[in-house]
Design brief:
Blueprint lengths: L3 H7 L1 H9 L2 H4 L9 E5 L2 H15 L5 E5 L11 E6 L5 H10 L4 E6 L6 H4 L2 E4 L12 H13 L5 H12 L4 H5 L2 E6 L3 H16 L2 E6 H4 L11 E6 L6 H8 L2 E3 L5 H18 L19
Parallel strand pairs: 1-2, 1-3, 3-4, 4-5, 6-7, 6-8, 8-9
Helix pairs in contact: 2-7, 2-8, 4-7, 4-10, 8-13, 10-13
Length: about 290
């Protein structure tokens, strides 16, 4: 079965490289030293978490990340970045409407013709990363590639690693596993949450996600033979041994963490197809959440 998700997933090295070169668009993002918030829903919220950590840890300024429906934006921010693939998500539109004329807003969006474009002060459009599949892959990671490049990162290694992730063999143990727990530290916590969401959306799999150092404060109790603990980035010392003691499979490698997310996306797709599911149109989900009045 050929799916939009499969094609869009495989295009990520090219869309990342393209986003890394968008210098004019990157200049529209809040300047060095600005105090900002980043808001989105679902996948976009998780990418906001990763961007916020990278920006603040890199010395670019205080940066908070919020789910758009729960955003505390009346805190004297210099700017608010709204991240949304469709540009039609109700909570995001309501948030930027609330901020009009009071706080500078910057939209990062896949659909250049969406309502968000007219509501924000500045907009970065990524139509080449927009998607037909309900399950997001490339828009989320391409937006994060844009953010990383805007912070001065060279994404050459990430692009190369993504190609390796796309071409590599998948471990059958990952396709057949009963349960997944995804972990991260720092900016990769957002990636762990996103990997868990992808697995739930595409393949209806039982998944959890946590900051890695929190995992041993209770969640490790779920680890067992036939289950997977998957860490993005370099795992904390001793974690692999602790997981091994439970009999669970521990997954980690040296690829760039965004490329590791690509691997997780591939597993989610493979699990969906193995179960006869259509990842382009998952149960109970739509491309954009538009709430009625």
């Amino acid at each position: 079965m050929t799916t939009h998700m499969a094609r869009e997933l495989a295009s990520q090295p090219d869309t990342w490289a393209r986003a890394a070169g968008l210098r004019a668009e990157q200049s529209l993002l809040p300047a060095h030293g600005a105090r900002i918030a980043v808001a989105g829903c679902g996948t976009s919220w998780f990418m906001a978490q990763s961007y916020a950590w990278l920006r603040e840890a890199g010395g670019y300024g205080e940066t908070d990340a919020f789910a758009a429906s729960e955003a505390f934006v009346d805190r004297g921010y210099d700017a608010v970045v709204a991240l949304t693939r469709s540009g039609t998500t109700t909570e995001v539109l309501e948030l930027v409407e609330r901020l009009r004329g009071r706080v500078r807003t910057v939209g990062v969006v896949g659909d250049a013709d969406s309502p968000l474009v007219e509501l924000v002060d500045d907009v970065v459009t990524l139509p080449f990363a927009d998607e037909e599949s309900v399950v997001q892959t490339r828009f989320a990671t391409t937006a994060l590639a844009l953010f990383r490049a805007s912070l001065g990162e060279d994404l050459g290694r990430a692009v190369d690693d993504a190609r390796r992730a796309i071409d590599g063999d998948l471990d059958p143990a990952l396709i057949e596993a009963e349960q997944f727990t995804f972990l991260g530290t720092g900016w990769t916590v957002g990636l762990a949450h996103e990997a868990a969401l992808k697995m739930r959306e595409a393949s209806q799999s039982w998944t959890e996600s946590y900051p890695a150092m929190e995992y041993r404060h209770g969640p490790i109790a779920i680890a067992a033979p036939g289950r997977v603990t998957w860490h993005f980035g370099a795992p904390p010392a001793g974690l692999a041994d602790d997981v091994a003691a439970t009999g669970a499979h521990f997954e980690a490698d040296a690829l760039d963490p965004m490329a590791q997310l690509v691997s997780a996306q591939r597993v989610a797709l493979a699990r969906a197809l193995a179960r006869g599911l259509n990842p382009d149109s998952p149960r109970s989900l739509t491309r954009s959440v538009i709430l009625g009045s």
